[in-house]
Design goal:
The protein is built from eight helices and six strands; from the N terminus they run αβββααβααααβαβ. By secondary structure, it is an alpha/beta fold. The protein starts with 16 loop residues before the first helix and ends with a strand.
Length: 234
């Protein structure tokens, strides 16, 4: 399995630390996943949104396979703040099985509501939408971020070692992304995006255009982003 750099286009969202660490208790080592379905849901303030970042193998086939899911907690403050956390693949056998089995598309090629609800129940979070990309889309995004061509060829993780590879490389990728934001160089990334290579086959979302435009604009215009964290301890 080749090293992945899970950089999604427009997956650049910001988060409130308090709510991020509440959800992190479900994910980081030492957390008690057996209680995830019994705890009270986390309320989302009007200025916060939580977005799923979904990576599949090939979005042009009838049934793409799920590679990974991260969550971006977005807090629309001034300046905006963000946190990334891995949700899938999971080392918890129950969560891994439930998410794997519930992942499917609707007839109009949207992610099923059942899958979204499984994630929300497993990690005790509320989500506001998702962004999806496949191996080719991730490869393009990596090119625009680093200037280097990298062919991403990734399948479903079956063993803990394969899960670790996916998670650790996602962790590294989002840490690199945070460094870009913290340095104030996000505009160089956005200006490199060639949407004609992504749409319609390698990028999809259920978010309205206004949400994407608002988030992108806030990232580019932010004078000093002081918080961008990756909650992962691989």
């Amino acid at each position: 399995m080749k090293k992945i750099v899970l950089i999604f286009v427009i997956l650049l969202f910001f988060v409130c630390a308090y709510f991020g660490f509440n959800a992190a208790a479900k994910i980081l080592p030492g957390s008690d996943n057996s209680q995830t379905n019994t705890q009270t849901d986390i309320a989302i303030p009007s200025s916060q949104r939580n977005y799923l970042l979904i990576h599949v193998t090939d979005n042009t086939v009838e049934e793409p396979e799920l590679v990974s899911v991260w969550v971006a907690f977005v807090y629309y403050s001034t300046p905006p703040q963000l946190m990334f956390m891995p949700l899938y693949p999971s080392y918890d056998p129950k969560i891994q099985t439930n998410l794997s089995q519930s992942f499917q598309f609707t007839t109009d090629k949207n992610i099923s509501t059942k899958f979204i609800k499984q994630i929300e129940q497993a990690y005790n979070i509320k989500t506001s939408g998702y962004v999806l990309s496949d191996n080719l889309g991730v490869s393009y995004s990596n090119l625009w971020l680093t200037g280097q061509e990298t062919q991403v060829s990734t399948g479903v993780a079956m063993t803990d070692e394969e899960k670790h590879i996916i998670r650790v490389n996602g962790q590294t990728a989002y840490q690199q992304l945070c460094l870009l934001f913290l340095s104030g160089a996000s505009n160089s990334y956005f200006s490199s995006i060639n949407w004609s290579l992504l749409l319609p086959d390698h990028f999809s979302t259920n978010l309205p255009f206004e949400t994407i435009a608002l988030t992108t604009d806030q990232i580019i215009r932010a004078t000093s982003i002081t918080q961008c964290d990756v909650l992962s301890s691989e």
